[in-house]
Amino acid sequence: MLVAVARNAWRIYSSGCLRGCAGKLLALRSRSSYIIISRRLSHNEAHIDHISLADIEVITEQKDKKRSRGRAEKKNEGAKQKKKTESLKAQTNETNPDDSLTGFYQDLKDMVDQFSNRVDGEYVIFTQVGSFYELYFEQAEKYAGILGITLTRKQLKSQSIPFAGFPDYKLDKYLRLIFSKGLKAVICNQRRDEFSNVITRPIDRIVSPGTVVDEGLRDYHRNNHLLAITFPEEPFKHSVMEGKIGLTWCDVSLGTFYVLETNFENLMAAITRINPSEIVVDSKFDIEYLYSGKWHPQFTDLKSYYTTRFQVPSTKRKLQDYASKFADNKKLVLSTFDLLKQKEISASNLLLNYIAECLPNYSTNFQLPTRSLPSEVMQIDPRAAKDLELTETIRGGMRVGALANIIDRTVTNPGARLLSSWLLMPSTNIKEIKQRQHFITLMLKFGSFTGELIQLLKHTADISRIVRRIDNNRAAFAEYLEISSTIRYLDNIYDLIKERPEIFKVFSPIFKAFIDDASLHKLGTHITKTIDSSVTLKTNDNNNNNNGLRPDITIARTNWNIKADASKRMHTLRSKYDDCLEKYNQLLEDLAKQLCEGETTDLSLIRHLKTGEFLVNVRIKNKKSKELIENIKYEKKYHTRTSVKLLVPEWKELGNRMVAIENNIAIEEMNITNELKAKIFKHNNSIKEMSPIIELLDTTQSFANMAQEKNLVCPIVDKTTDFDIVEGRHLVVEEGLQDRSMGVANFTSNSCKLKNGEAWVITGPNMGGKSTFLRQNALIAILAQIGSFVPASYARLGIIDKIFTRVGSSDNIFKNQSTFMVEMNETAIILREATERSLVIVDELGRGTSPQEGVSIAFASLYTMIEKNKSKVLFATHFGMDLKKYIDKYPETKNAVEFYKTDLEELHDTSIPIDKRIIFHHTLSKGLSTHSHALLIAELAGFPKSALEIARESLPDETTS
C-alpha cells in the first residue's frame, strides 16, 4: 500500500505538478514522519523509506559531513589544477579571458558562440535565472538596445561580463519584438534535478514565427502555418522552370499537416494560398539566387516571407522515424507515408527535422498528412492577394480595412480560420460552391434559427487548440470542461436543426459521425462528473516554480479541481478534509473569543512562509487589544507593533493534518487527471472532428449575416466564360464611406459584362474611381467562388481559374527593382500564364517609361491578353486616345474592346474652394475621356498657385484642361 502511494507520488512529481517540493526530495509530510521518495539511478522505479524526523536529522548530519569532506578534497584538487594552469599560461603567455569563466558562464559562452556561427538566422538566447530571463556577453551588447532593456555588467571573480535581463512574465512582449526584427529566440528554462539539487538550463525551445506555441503570441483567428519547401537538384542550370517541388505545411498548435507536390509555375499561387508565417528551406539550396529574380522574376515575392535556411543535421532522421509525431497508430501513419510522392516525403522530412530541433519537448500529435488539391481552387498569386487587400492592407499591413475584416462575422476561432482559408483559396468546384450558397439561403430564410445558432456557437470551444494543450500539459482544468460543454452545445445545435425539417435535411449529414459516437458523449459526461465546475481558466505555466503546496493557508481551501465523488479515495480524503474544516472554523471562533473578546476581528490561522510553522496571527488594533494579548498563555513567536504571531498547539496539530490530507488529495487529483487524459487521447480524433462542424456552421452564418447586412445577392456560378455583374459595389470602399464622420456617403455602383477574349478599356481622371472599379470586379469574383453572396443587384459568373493584377507600383528597393521593372515582371507573368478562364485587371501599364514606348507596351500587352490568352480584361489607362489608334488598326481586336470612362465636373465659380468646386462622376459611361484633368487634381492636392500657373503655361493649347 505504502509503495503504491510512493509510486503515485513519484509520478506526480516527475510530471511537474509538485516541482521542488521539500527541497531535494519529495516529502509527504505527516505529524511525526516523512515519506521520502527517491529513484534508483539504475532503475526507472520509485522506492520508499519510512523514517522518523530524528532519522532525517542523522542522515542530514552524515550527508553534511560527507559533503564537507568532498568540498575539501575538491578544493585541494582545484588549487592544484589552478596552480598548474597558471604555470602553463605563464609559459605560453595565454591571455584569453574566457579561461577564467566558471562552468555556468562558460556553458553560456559556448552556446552564444554556437548560435552566432549558424547560417539559418540570428538567434537571441534567453536564459532563465530565477524569475528573470537574461542575456550575456556580446548578445547583451547587441540586443539590449533593440529590446529596450538596460545593459549593465555582471562582476565575476576575475572579470565582468556584459549582462541584461527582464522579468519572466514579460517574455511574450520581447518575443513579439524579436519577431518584428526578423530574429529568433532560444529559450533556456531552468530545471532542478530532484536528486542532486543541481540546476541546469537546457534549450527548452527555439521560437520562430512558425513554431509559436505560447498562447500570448498566437492569434487563433488565423492559421499559423510553418511551410517547408524542397526544390529539385540544380534547377538553375536550365532557363525553363523544370522539376517538381515538394511542399509540406502544418500548424503546430492545432496539429494540422498538409502535403503537396507542385512545380515552379504554380509555386507562388500555392504559397499565397498557404499564407505561411515562416518558410523553411534546406541551407544547401541557393534561395538568394531565387530571390534575386535573375532566374525568373516572379520569385522575388518570396523575399516578403520570413524564411529560414535550415542546416539539416548530419544525423538527420528519416521520415519513418517521426511516426510518433502523429496522433494515429504507427502502422496507419507509415502506410500513409507510403502514399506520399517523393518530393512530399522530402519536404515532410525537412519540416519534421526542423520541428524536432525547435520543439524537442513538445507533443505535436499531428493529424495524418492530407494532400491539398490545387486543381480545385482559384489561383491567386502574392501580388494579386496584396493588390486586392484580401487579408491585410497595402499600407501598414493592417487587417482593419482588408476584405477579410469586412466580411468576417464569425463568433468562433475555428470559423474565423476557415473563412480566412477560403478567401485565399476560392473554389472552382461548382457543386461545392452551390452547396455553400444553399446553406446561406437556408440561414437567411430561417432568421430566428440563425440567431439561436449564433448564440449556441458562442459557447463552443477551439477544440483542436485545447487537445494540443492537454497533450503538452499546458491546459487548465477549465479547458477540460470546455470539451464537455462543446459536446453538449453541439447536441443542442443538432436538436435545434431537427426542429426544422428543411434545415435538417441539408445539415444533418455533417453531424452523423458526431451523433453516432456514443463513447464521445460518454466522455463528455465523464469530464463533467470529474472536473469541479468552480475551476478557473488559469493555465499551467511551464516557468512556474511553485512546488504545488500552498505555504499559506490563512483561508482554508474550499475549491478543488476534481469533484469529491470522482473516486472512492477522493471521497474519503475530501470527507476528512471537510471534518478538518469544521474543526478549523470552530478553532477560529474559539480563539477569537479567547484572545480578542470582541476587540478585533482580524485574527487568522496561517502557516509561516519561511519556517513552515503553524501560527495564529492576531492584529493589534488598540491599547486594550494589546493588553489582552500580553496576558495570553500562548507562546509568542513573532511580535511587531501592529501584530503578534502565536504558537497554538491545537492549530499546529490541525494544520499538519490538513496539509497531509491536502497532499494526498493532490496525488489523487493527478491520478484521476492522468486517467482522464488517457481517455481524451483515446478519443483524440473524434474530439477533433467536432471542429469542422463548428467551422462550417460559423462561416455559413457569417456569410448569411453579412448578406443581410450588406444587401448582397446570390450569384449564378456556372461553367460558361461569362462575367456579368449588374450594379456591382466594392464592399471595403463602401464600408469606408459609411464610416466617415461627416455622414454617410453613397457608393456609386457600376455594371460590367465581359466574355473571354474581351476587354474594357477605362479612362478618366485620377480619383475618378477607375482603380476601385477594377478591384471590385475581382473581389466579386472571389466572393462568388468562396460561396458567399456578392455586392450587386445581379451576378452571373463562369468559373475563373486565375486572377491576375497589374496595378500601381512603386520602386521596390528591397528587391532591387525599379517601378518599370516591377511592371514588366508582373505583366510578363500574366502574358505567360493567363488562360481563357482568367480575369486580368491592369491599371496604368506603361507609365514608367517614355509616353511613346509606354503606349506601345500597353497595346502589345492588351493585344496578347485578348488574342492569345483569350482572357477577360479590365484595362485602366491614361493613354486612351493613343491606345485607340493602335487598336483601330486590328479589326478583330477592335471588336473585342469597349471603351468606358469616368469624368469630373468643374463649377465655374472660382470663389468656391477647390474641394467643393470639383464634382467626380464615378458612374461609368461609354466613350473615351479626352482629358485626365491632372492640373485640377494637382490643385486639389494643394499645389502652389505659382507652380500651377507655370504648368498651365507649359502645356500645349490642345492639352489644356
TrEMBL record:
<dbReference type="InterPro" id="IPR027417">
    <property type="entry name" value="P-loop_NTPase"/>
</dbReference>
<dbReference type="InterPro" id="IPR016151">
    <property type="entry name" value="DNA_mismatch_repair_MutS_N"/>
</dbReference>
<dbReference type="InterPro" id="IPR045076">
    <property type="entry name" value="MutS"/>
</dbReference>
<keyword id="KW-0547">Nucleotide-binding</keyword>
<dbReference type="InterPro" id="IPR017261">
    <property type="entry name" value="DNA_mismatch_repair_MutS/MSH"/>
</dbReference>
<comment type="function">
    <text>Component of the post-replicative DNA mismatch repair system (MMR). Heterodimerizes with MSH2 to form MutS beta, which binds to DNA mismatches thereby initiating DNA repair. MSH3 provides substrate-binding and substrate specificity to the complex. When bound, the MutS beta heterodimer bends the DNA helix and shields approximately 20 base pairs. Acts mainly to repair insertion-deletion loops (IDLs) from 2 to 13 nucleotides in size, but can also repair base-base and single insertion-deletion mismatches that occur during replication.</text>
</comment>
<dbReference type="Pfam" id="PF05192">
    <property type="entry name" value="MutS_III"/>
</dbReference>
<dbReference type="GO" id="GO:0030983">
    <property type="term" value="F:mismatched DNA binding"/>
</dbReference>
<protein>
    <recommendedName>
        <fullName>DNA mismatch repair proteins mutS family domain-containing protein</fullName>
    </recommendedName>
</protein>
<dbReference type="Pfam" id="PF05188">
    <property type="entry name" value="MutS_II"/>
</dbReference>
<dbReference type="Pfam" id="PF00488">
    <property type="entry name" value="MutS_V"/>
</dbReference>
<comment type="subunit">
    <text>Heterodimer consisting of MSH2-MSH3 (MutS beta). Forms a ternary complex with MutL alpha (MLH1-PMS1).</text>
</comment>
<dbReference type="GO" id="GO:0140664">
    <property type="term" value="F:ATP-dependent DNA damage sensor activity"/>
</dbReference>
<dbReference type="Pfam" id="PF01624">
    <property type="entry name" value="MutS_I"/>
</dbReference>
<dbReference type="GO" id="GO:0005634">
    <property type="term" value="C:nucleus"/>
</dbReference>
<feature type="compositionally biased region" description="Polar residues">
    <location>
        <begin position="88"/>
        <end position="99"/>
    </location>
</feature>
<dbReference type="InterPro" id="IPR036678">
    <property type="entry name" value="MutS_con_dom_sf"/>
</dbReference>
<dbReference type="GO" id="GO:0005524">
    <property type="term" value="F:ATP binding"/>
</dbReference>
<dbReference type="GO" id="GO:0005739">
    <property type="term" value="C:mitochondrion"/>
</dbReference>
<dbReference type="InterPro" id="IPR036187">
    <property type="entry name" value="DNA_mismatch_repair_MutS_sf"/>
</dbReference>
<keyword id="KW-0067">ATP-binding</keyword>
<keyword id="KW-0227">DNA damage</keyword>
<dbReference type="GO" id="GO:0043504">
    <property type="term" value="P:mitochondrial DNA repair"/>
</dbReference>
<dbReference type="GO" id="GO:0006298">
    <property type="term" value="P:mismatch repair"/>
</dbReference>
<keyword id="KW-0238">DNA-binding</keyword>
<dbReference type="InterPro" id="IPR007860">
    <property type="entry name" value="DNA_mmatch_repair_MutS_con_dom"/>
</dbReference>
<dbReference type="InterPro" id="IPR007695">
    <property type="entry name" value="DNA_mismatch_repair_MutS-lik_N"/>
</dbReference>
<feature type="compositionally biased region" description="Basic and acidic residues">
    <location>
        <begin position="64"/>
        <end position="87"/>
    </location>
</feature>
<keyword id="KW-0234">DNA repair</keyword>
<feature type="domain" description="DNA mismatch repair proteins mutS family">
    <location>
        <begin position="838"/>
        <end position="854"/>
    </location>
</feature>
<comment type="similarity">
    <text>Belongs to the DNA mismatch repair MutS family.</text>
</comment>
<feature type="region of interest" description="Disordered">
    <location>
        <begin position="64"/>
        <end position="99"/>
    </location>
</feature>
<dbReference type="InterPro" id="IPR000432">
    <property type="entry name" value="DNA_mismatch_repair_MutS_C"/>
</dbReference>
<dbReference type="InterPro" id="IPR007696">
    <property type="entry name" value="DNA_mismatch_repair_MutS_core"/>
</dbReference>
